[in-house]
Amino acid sequence: MNLVSFIKSATGFTSKGIENTVKLLEEDSTVPFISRYRKEMTGNMDEVQIQKIVKLKTEFEEIEKRKETILKSIEEQDALTEELKDKILHCFDKNQLEDYYLPYKKKRKTRSVTAKENGLEPLAKIIMKQNPINDLEAIAFKYLSDKVSTVQDALQGARDIISEWINENETIRARIRGLFRQSAIIESKLIKSKEKEEEAQKFSNYFDFSEPLKKSPSHRLLAMIRGSNEGFLRIKIKVDTEEVFEMMERFYLKTRQKEIAEQIATAVKDSYNRLLEPALSNEVFQEAKLKADQTAIQVFSSNLEQLLLQPPLGEKRILAIDPGFKSGCKIVCLSEQGDLLHNDTIYPHPPQREAKEAVKKIKSMVNAYKIEAISIGNGTASRETERLIQSIAFDRELKVFVVSEAGASVYSASKIAREEYPSFDVTVRGAVSIGRRLSDPLAELVKIEPKSIGVGQYQHDVDQGLLKSELDAVVVSSVNNVGVNLNTAGKFLLSYVSGIGEKLAENIVAYRQEHGSFTSRQELKKVPRLGEKAFQQASAFLRIPASENPLDNSAVHPESYSLVNKMAKDLGVKIEQLVKNKEEIKKINVENYISEQVGLPTLKDIIKELEKPGLDPRKQVKIFSFDPSLKSIEDLKIGMKVPGIVNNITNFGCFVDIGIKESGLVHISKVAKEFVSDINSVVRLNQHVEAKIIEVDLPRKRIQLSLID
Q: Residue 105: is it exposed, middle or buried by C-beta count within 10 angstroms (0-12/13-18/19+)?
């Protein structure tokens, strides 16, 4: 099976589409570029499908590399038969591949190795043949030596060898593995010595819990694993051992002779209990863990994408506040481009209660820096600060927004923040981040490690390499989906643009600082080390609003400029007269422009861009207000309806910020009247909702909500 066949068997994609996609990937084309500008080659595959090919390509290459290692190792042992070589070459199941290799793996000093060194392998072979024997002990007596002192020691050694043979049998391993996958039970129990520890109580649902492993949902499995990792729970994966022994004995027992049958049956049980069960239960558990990880990461990825694509306020002068009580509220004033103009601290809340001075300072800053909007972080003292701002009589209409400050502290202490504001402390940097999140969430949030943004489900418990890979792909996709202003983007945002990377992003910013703003996409080629390949991959994702060529501010790729010129020429108009001119665009018959290189998918994309060049896929930002009467969980009453914002989504439901310290949980069964399997089809991150209070647990500070009227 070659790479194309391997991917096709897993996806059902066309061979041609897979072949062309693989070719493009091997030419260092990026996923955003391929999905957007090579639709004819891929058969119009989207980013998700192309990412699937990327993963399967990596998996195939890893399997092939492992095969090479295994074949080389077995060959060096002079044990590689043509039959075994053929099995290995045609195997694409990782577990089965390791089963083939198991008998040839270099072993540590096992009981079986010791028994073989003691000369007991011939005795083990005699027992395994299961031929009629009059006196097994008499035969075992012949194998006594200075290292094997009794008949029982000889028989034990022979059984140790047989146990290892059973463990290495690929057929029996496959059957037991299948049994574990089908009917394994996961059990979790409280570790008795931990029952009085307060921290253990968060895992109380799993103190004495069991369910079929294959039915255990991601969030439950990861919760048990966290409890185990923190030392509160003991987890075990079990199957019916009697069923296993019966199956193994049916496979191995070929004789009715009692002496031999007892030895085989004992070796079977020993092999399972000591070798097969620990290895295969762990293997199946790790498979379930990987599946749970992938599910949790998918939830996180979906949340992250929604967070990155939050509506931007746009280029406005913003006063941003990082609220606090004792330490005060840090205030920064930002320019339209997000540059820091001024910073100050006010102390309107307890213990200082300097509200009058605070109001005076805020009004002065609003007027001095021509502030157009106010951004307030949603942490400690957020509601109190929002009420203070709302009480101020400004001489103009100011929009007030409360934004999530999750991850702001991570950013403020990061290398990126230090580079941006080397002479300011973390409090100023944090406030700047709160302001910039309002003007352009995407540009600001890409500076923060995604798992620190706080919209995941057990993100610290899943495979960190897999998590990083998936989240990086989400960031890249989001940045390129929106597009980046070449003349205002910082190096960190630029580094996520298709084909750019960290070094070229630095070179672009340095070029901009030396030569001023870019006037055209073609000027990109003057950036040091930005060659034709990088230009091909990146140029269409970069926008130049002030360029003389309106296509430079669109998603039309420069390689298609000549085609658009031809369309304009055929209509007898200039490009500037064609762009955004629906009447003229309607006259274009795309069928006339189909060629070997350009098909209908690309032509339709071009027409869409001509109608609305550089259209930002993000929606307009909306102002939201919490219920001002709610100040703490004690104010909640069953049946009360309250406004809220969805601030996290999981597989089992979503969490809603209702303006107090604790967020409320909406179980998936309370999201809609009809059954919901995919919660993202019903609610979105940062969606404004009206929720009904259905349960308030004051001791545990838990709130249950419903979105069903």
A: exposed
Share of the chain above pLDDT 70, in %: 100
DSSP reduced 3-state for 305: helix
Write the pLDDT tens digit of every residue in 246-269.
Answer: 999 999 999 889 999 999 999 999
Residue 709 has pLDDT above 90, yes or no: no
Cα 58 to chain centroid distance, Å, stands at 17
Residue type, 114: T
Question: What is the pTM for the complete model shown?
Answer: 0.88
- Name which of 414, 436, 412, 406 is nearest 426 in CA terms: 412
Residue ranges in 531-656 assigned as alpha helix (H): 532-538, 561-571, 575-578, 582-586, 600-611
The token pair that represents 690 in the structure block = 């009206």
Domains and their CATH numbers in the chain? 3-104 (1.10.10.650), 111-299 (1.10.3500.10), 318-494 (3.30.420.140), 548-621 (1.10.150.310), 633-706 (2.40.50.140)
The residues, any chain, with a CB within 8 Å of residue 581's CB and separated by 6 or more, are 573
Residues comprising the chain, all counted: 709
Stretch (H or E) spanning 695: strand 688-697
Pick the range with the lowest mean pLDDT from 9-18, 64-73, 172-181, 255-264: 255-264
Q: Please check whether residue 689 is in contact with residue 708, taking contact to mean a CB–CB distance below 8 angstroms.
A: no
Q: Which residues of 245-280 are buried (b: 16+ CB within 10 A; e: fewer)?
A: eeebeeebeebebeebbebbeebbbbbbeebbbebb
